[in-house]
């Protein structure tokens, strides 16, 4: 499996997205309707935002977490102190588990970075027992992430490469209304339900927002790494101006919406 997500450093990812996925995880767990005694698979665990939120749920029997990135797996393993939690490196499109191993398979902010997202959903269904649940959540890049759209719209106004970035970013897989739900239905899941989950991303100042992107983390950071020094300086100044919006640098807050879908394995 390939992934369109770009990661250099686990701490950089935490500043870029990990701290926000930690806020989203409890809402997603409630939507997935976790029950006591279950065996849960976390597909694409990253640094462990969902994994360790699951570990706070009373009486779960077992939590297995996998990720394609060895950087993420190493970081999550360093954090782990719970004997119920097992973390390994694996491909979401070829899960190394027998059929029906788990009660639920969950994916937090993963499927939109998997080019063969439907295949990943099929694999999640395969490893969940009949009557179990498959659930996933992805950001709505087009209409639900104003803080990130601020950056991509700014660079789109600066260059053709910026316009190409915006097109890729806004129309990644599984992000349009009903798209992930349809993928679940196509993979044979039953009683498929879609909803929206919302958190706020609160930044202390422009550097808190911009530092991980400028350092090359994530898909927006990957774009920044392609720019020469003059274009980087021009982009830094333009995005700062958009962030400040004519006011002094300081705290800013953005509401962010994600699509969440769950279905039952027949």
UniProtKB/TrEMBL annotation:
SUPFAM superfamilies per the UniProt record, alphabetical: S-adenosyl-L-methionine-dependent methyltransferases
Entries under InterPro entries matching the protein: Methyltransf_11, SAM-dependent_MTases_sf
Entry's Gene Ontology BP terms: methylation
Keywords attached to this entry: Methyltransferase, Transferase
UniProt GO molecular function: S-adenosylmethionine-dependent methyltransferase activity
Domain Methyltransferase type: 41-135
UniProt name for this protein: Class I SAM-dependent methyltransferase
Organism: Borborobacter arsenicus
């Amino acid at each position: 499996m390939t992934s369109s997500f770009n990661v250099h450093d686990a701490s950089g990812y935490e500043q870029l997205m990990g701290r926000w996925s930690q806020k989203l995880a409890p809402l997603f767990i409630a939507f997935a309707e976790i029950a006591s005694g279950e065996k849960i698979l976390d597909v694409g665990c990253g640094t462990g935002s969902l994994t360790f939120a699951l570990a706070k749920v009373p009486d779960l029997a077992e939590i297995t977490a996998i990720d394609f990135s060895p950087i993420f797996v190493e970081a999550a393993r360093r954090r782990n102190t719970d004997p119920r939690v097992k973390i390994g490196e694996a491909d979401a499109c070829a899960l190394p588990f027998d059929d029906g191993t788990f009660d639920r398979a969950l994916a937090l902010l993963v499927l939109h970075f998997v080019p063969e997202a439907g295949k990943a959903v099929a694999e999640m269904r395969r490893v969940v027992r009949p009557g179990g649940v498959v659930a996933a959540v992805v950001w709505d890049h087009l209409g639900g992430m104003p803080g990130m759209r601020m950056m991509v719209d700014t660079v789109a106004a600066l260059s053709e490469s910026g316009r190409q970035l915006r097109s890729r970013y806004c129309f990644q897989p599984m992000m349009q209304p009903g798209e992930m739900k349809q993928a679940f239905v196509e993979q044979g899941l039953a009683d498929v339900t879609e909803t929206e989950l919302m958190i706020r991303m609160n930044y202390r100042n422009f550097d808190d927002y911009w530092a991980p992107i400028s350092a090359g983390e994530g898909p927006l950071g990957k774009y920044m790494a392609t720019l020469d020094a003059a274009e980087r300086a021009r982009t830094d100044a333009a995005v700062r101006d958009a962030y400040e919006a004519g006011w002094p640098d300081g705290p800013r807050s953005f509401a962010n919406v994600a699509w969440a879908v769950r279905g039952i394995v027949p």
